[in-house]
Amino acid sequence: MKKLLQEFKEFAMKGNVMDLATAVIIGGAFGKIVSSLVADIIMPIIGLLTSGKNFNDIKIVLREASLTNPAVTMNIGLFIQNIIDFIIIAFSIFMMIKMLNQLQKKFKKEEEKKETIIESSKEEQLLTEIRDLLKKN
Questions:
Q1: What are 55-65's pLDDT values in tens digits?
Q2: Residues of 99-129 as b/e, b for ≥16 C-beta within 10 angstroms?
Q3: Phi, psi at residue 69, to the nearest 5°?
Q4: Which domains does the chain have, with CATH numbers?
């Protein structure tokens, strides 16, 4: 049991797990921001363009409400709103990954340039040493 706990502790303290936990927390907060953007800004504009129709009110009533039972509805408007949420979040993640890939390529090219410069300066040093030795002889 002690060994299992030790292994779990090592696993939990690895950088990747901590990065993942941070990403989940930030992603949750980002999701709330996007949901608010869609519900409070985008959907009212879409509603205005569709003759003032509130998307939250778009429903298909499957069974009317009675004295003892509430109405059973399919909330089409909320579903559309959630689709828009998803599209915005997916596009944002796509753009972030695209930006990170571009930065990664840029840093890789710079690193390759530095390695080339270091290699050429080593060759220059070696050639300088050979020249100096030849001059002495």
A1: 778 899 999 98
A2: eeeeeeeeeeeeeeeeeeeeeeeeeeeeeee
A3: -125, 140
A4: 2-111 (1.10.1200.120)
